Every structure is written in structure tokens, then in C-alpha cells.
Amino acid sequence: MAEVKNNQVILKDYVVDFPKESDMDLVEGTIAQKLPEGSNEVLLKNLYLSCDPYMRMLMSKTEGPEGFQTYSTGSPLTGYGVAKVLESGHPDYKKGDLVWGFTRWEEYSLVPASMILFKIEHTDVPLSYYTGILGMPGMTAYAGFFEVGLPKEGDKVFVSAASGAVGQLVGQFAKLSGCYVVGSAGSKDKVDLLKNKFGFDDAFNYKEEPDLNAALKRYFPEGIDIYFENVGGKTLDAVLLNMRVHGRIVVCGMVSQYNLAQPEGVTNLQHLIIKRIRMQGFNVTDYYHQYPKFLEYIVPKIKEGKIVYVEDIVEGLEKAAQALVGLFSGRNVGKQVIVLAHE
Amino acid sequence: MAEVKNNQVILKDYVVDFPKESDMDLVEGTIAQKLPEGSNEVLLKNLYLSCDPYMRMLMSKTEGPEGFQTYSTGSPLTGYGVAKVLESGHPDYKKGDLVWGFTRWEEYSLVPASMILFKIEHTDVPLSYYTGILGMPGMTAYAGFFEVGLPKEGDKVFVSAASGAVGQLVGQFAKLSGCYVVGSAGSKDKVDLLKNKFGFDDAFNYKEEPDLNAALKRYFPEGIDIYFENVGGKTLDAVLLNMRVHGRIVVCGMVSQYNLAQPEGVTNLQHLIIKRIRMQGFNVTDYYHQYPKFLEYIVPKIKEGKIVYVEDIVEGLEKAAQALVGLFSGRNVGKQVIVLAHE
């Protein structure tokens, strides 16, 4: 069975605070270009890899809580990607199919089809979109905003990390639903993007707001109905002070906390009672059965230019570690993607 | 218009940390025993007054958030009580009616009927029950457990402050719903009560558990489906580590935090995401339309002895301040009630 070179990005050391490029290593492995006899797995050529904030949690040594398997040192990272099927032992996939789903940070991967693996039907959009707007982040924004947030026309919506892979979509969904939406981000460029490209009603740079509570009072004099939570910590504490009665906090991520050995304490949870707030964590995997419905909603809007998407694309597996690390310093503008091959 | 003596418990000073008896004062006022001409108010003779943890929040000087009016110094406290109608300018009430609802800490009160005021229909149960099991705390337990908690048979339920006015009922509702329920309380007597009187599957004294996380792992090796939150702070943080996927945290109160100038920080909120937890604050007033349905559920169970209720009753307005203060050191065993008159 012929083996070919298979470059991989492996986790070298468990990460303690902010991840560094040197926590990962680019190593040369090999892989058989044929499926093992009787296998029902799928052999993939990886085209695009997705950098997502949740990956930081899997880089810690701490025993993962229920349902959370952290990475193993010496093994390639896992994550979402777009790939082409080279061989398939599973009846749902055949050679030549384009797919998106769970793969590994390497050139070729042998994956169980029982993991998340969607066949790509629409190829008249950029393939990289299946790591973002048409993939996990898109479904996350859709399920989180509509299914967990239950928006009503006129709702006041606040989105943190608003120019990120998920946030930029939440803001656009909010506008399309007749809501007022304000986003926060960490640079002037990102704030401009929010206001001028994604159509947020307003946006601010949280790094220039020493008093987040005062900033929120300025943008939401009547309070916030829906907070789409991507960052956690101090931002959440300030938001709790500014929520309206019967508000909803959609807890999608807490990226400001992932690099801290001891997360910041949140002190204003009493406001959950006073204002009868629903604060709800969710995981996109619980909503993947709605993916066809999501495509019906979003594909026409992409084609008509009613929804736009900004990606930050780097070329080559050798840039992968740097790209992932950049996510936690906010270096990326838009969805961070790594291209390994274009087809 | 004849005026009569009307003893009152007033707030003397705004409270900073734990309330003290000396923060309140017993003063002699007067009140007209006739309604003002054309009034649609109701003149009440107060029979029972209810001591409830939420009252602590109203004793602080801090500007109340939306919908929260703190007490005024020099004025009587307000709160739930049971009373007899002496005069009524409102068509729904007539002289001689027994009612429960919002009144003031004084012998006689002139109240607007537009406040919460329910006519008492069942008088073959102790009248004091309308400050507890048949009043606001009963409705709180019912709405919180059933409407917010959405229990399923077999769910593992944890209740903090479990021997209190609300907690003792939540535990009994959980058992009647086929759940496994464990309660925490602050003394051996209370723990005995939980196990032997209220039928909790198990119970523990949190003061004897230096590691709350370890205690919860012992009582819930498979994790917690529903946490009925009455205390907040460190308890909530330990519970978050022990919740199951799709668990629900019913946020009813956070009594451990009410006396702190700076609430304890809660650091494990990331578990909301990992385990897809819904954490929801609620206010019983949103559910009062279900009161008739609640009575249908609970009155037969009281009469058949399927639900029991423990009260801690003191006599006389002069004991009221002490009774209220005792709530925050856990001195009371069961629902704290003050009797002013028996009819």
C-alpha cells in the first residue's frame, strides 16, 4: 500500500495561558492513499482548515468535562475543514465529493464518517465559505440568534467579538429581523467594518472604553433585549447591568476567558432574577438537523448580496499555527481560514 | 374621622452588609379607620406578615434597577401578608374578606387594590399558610420548578436553602414528579427535617463541607439536571462544575449575596456552553395568573398529607425586626412568619 508524505500540525505542549506558535509543531508524517480493507471510513484531501476559538479549550491539559475530549500532545489538532473525498468506504460519500466537517490539521486525513461530515451541494460560492458562513460558524450564528435568542422585531441586540466568524452574521441576521444592533470589537478597522460593511446600527472599540457599563448605557439607553455572548468576563458583567426585563443572553463563547488559568469572576448575576433573564449556553451540534433549512435561508441571501462575509485567509499549513494563535490576540479580521489546496 | 393607634416597623437606616435589628424601629403611628371619600383603596387589618429574603435587596440604598423600588427610610417596610378587609372602596373586595398580598409592616394598612391582593377562598387550612405554601413562596416554588425547571421523571435535582419557605416545597414537588432530590441547608436540624419530614432522598449541611464540589460529586455522581438556586456565589460555582448536559438552573434567589457590598465572582460560567445549560431568572409575579391552577394542585395534597409545610412563627410586631434579621443568619427553621392578630 503506497504511503505518501502527509504534513501535520501537532500539539507539542499543553497550553497554560495564551497559546504560542511554539506550542505546535509542523511535522512530516505519512499516510496510505488507500482505505484499509473493509473500512467504512473516508479518506480526505484537506483543502481548507478553520481556526475557531473553541479550539483553545481543547489545548489545555485539564480533564475535559463531559463530552469534551482535549487534544493529545504529539497528535495533529482536529477541527472543522473543507475537503475532497479521495476514497470512501461509506455509502453516503464517493470519490470526488466535496465535504465539510470534522477533520485533522494535516494534508490528508482518514476520518470516520460517523463524525460530522456534510456533503457540499452548492459549489457556486467560494469553497472556503464552508468553514464559515456556510459551515459551523454560520449554523452557530443562525441557531444561536434565532433558536436560542428568539428575536422579535424592534429588539435591541448587542454582539461582542462582532467582526468574528459568528458575530458578523449575528449582526446581519439581527438587521434582517428588524432589530437594532450594536457590536463591539477590538480595533478601529473592525469597528469600521461593522458599521460600513455589515450594516450594524453602531459599533465601538472596547479597548477605548474604560467604563464598559457607561458605553453600553450610551448605546442602549433603554437596555438590551438580546446579548449574543462571545467573550465572557468583564463584558458579561457590564451587560448584566444593562439587560432589559425578559432579556436573553445567548452564550455562544467566552473567548476572553479561554486563556486564563482562573477565569474572571462575574458578580452581577443577581440581575438574572431582577430582570427575569434567560441565559443559555448552546452547542451548534444540537442544531445540525436544521442545516438544510439554514441553507435555504442563507444561500439566496449570499447570491443577492443581502448578506456579506469577510474572511482572513492564509496560505499553507506552515502558517496554520500562527493563524490560530492570532485568533486570541484579535489579529484576524473576519473568519480565519487556512488554505492547504484549492482543489 | 376617628384615628386609631397604628404601630409600624420602619426602616431607620439603609443597610450596608448584614441587616441588624437596629436598622429598623418600632414606632407608633395613627390611621383613620374609614376610607377617604371616593377612594377605591382597601383598608386592611394585618394578621400575618411574611419575612422573605428578597426584602434585603430593598433595604439597600443603591438605586433599584428597572422595576425595583427600594424602601424609604422613615416609612414602614412593605411585604407580603395575610389581612382582613375592614373597609373596601374596590368592588372586588368587601368588609370581612380575608386576603393575602402586598401590605405594610404595621397593624392597619390602606392599600391600593391594584397591588397584588388575592381573596382567600379556602379557610380550612391555617391562615398563615397564605404567607407561605399557599402564597408567594408556594407559587414561586411551583412556577420555578415546573415552568422554568421543566422537570422530567428521573431528573436529578439539587435545591439550596432547601428547608426554607420555597426550598422545602421544591423538594416535595420533585419527589411527587419522580425525581431524585438532594437539599443543602445550614444546620443538622434542618438536614434532619429535609430527610425525615420533607422526604428528600438525601441532604447535607453545607457548613460541614469544606469542598462543595466534592460534596456534590458524592451526592450526584452522574451530575445534576435541575439546580434550584436560592443562594448564589460559591454554591453556584460548585454546581456549574456538576451540571449535566442540557441541565437547567432555576434562579430563584441568591440569598448568600444580598448582604455583600461586592458579590462573590462566579468563575465557572463556561460550563453553560460546554453543557448547553439554561440558567433562567424568574419572578413569581409573571406567573400569578396560574394561581387558581396552583391551588387545584396543592390544596388536595395538603389535606391528604401528601405535602407538608414547616413554619417558624413569632408573635407580635415587636418581634418582627428580629425575625427578619434572623433570615440572613439562617436562624429560622422553615417559613418565617410574624403573627399580629389571629383574626
TrEMBL record, chains A, B:
Q: Which PANTHER family match?
A: PROSTAGLANDIN REDUCTASE, PROSTAGLANDIN REDUCTASE 1
- Protein name as annotated: Enoyl reductase (ER) domain-containing protein
Ranges where the Enoyl reductase (ER) domain occurs: 22-338
Q: Which Pfam families match?
A: ADH_N_2, ADH_zinc_N
**SUPFAM superfamilies assigned:** GroES-like, NAD(P)-binding Rossmann-fold domains
Superkingdom per UniProt: Eukaryota
Record's keyword annotation contains Lyase: no
State the CDD domains in the record. Answer: double_bond_reductase_like
Signal peptide start and end residues: none
Native species: Stylosanthes scabra
| Keyword presence, Repeat | no
Query: InterPro entries, from UniProt?
Result: ADH-like_C, ADH_N_2, ER, GroES-like_sf, MDR_fam, NAD(P)-bd_dom_sf
Instruction: Report keywords, A-Z.
Output: Oxidoreductase
